[in-house]
Amino acid sequence: MELPILTHETAPQASQVVLDGIAADLGFVPNLAATVATSPTLLAGFDGLRRAVGDPSFNPVHREIAGVAVGVAVDNAYGVAFHSTVLGRLGVDESEIEAMRSGSEPRHAVQAAVYAFARAVVLDRGAVDETVVQRARDAGLSDHDLLQLVTECVFASLVGFVDNLAGRVELDEFLQSWAWK
CA 135 to CA 145: how far, in whole Å? Predict the structure, then answer.
């Protein structure tokens, strides 16, 4: 399905305000957001989830690890590039990022539990095996943390659906060094 990358001028009027808010927050509008702008409803949902996962009580490294895990699981090239880029900016070792991009868990026990949980959420469609949940709890993650991760999994899945439906959304320039596949 061909989904164009819209601009503020070419987006429906109802999407323009949301695009302006995204641009104000980030300094630009990512191509993924500009692609979903064709539907003001989808753009509003995308932006709401984007803002929700930015909750400061949500560990940013865990959020991005979950994003990579989901991206790999659902074959989401845009999401894998995005979350890899952010993990690099957060100081995660490049070899750890590469391992996650290849489908392997990170070495750190808590991060590995985050990766395994996020992957299970999407692959098992929410019916996560209790051993995966217990592993996350044993690593120190609370139910609050796990539900925060579910929020990221939903957001990353949405991005993956759009990326796959569009036959791959063109990566923004800042993501190109972490292009996946």
Answer: 13
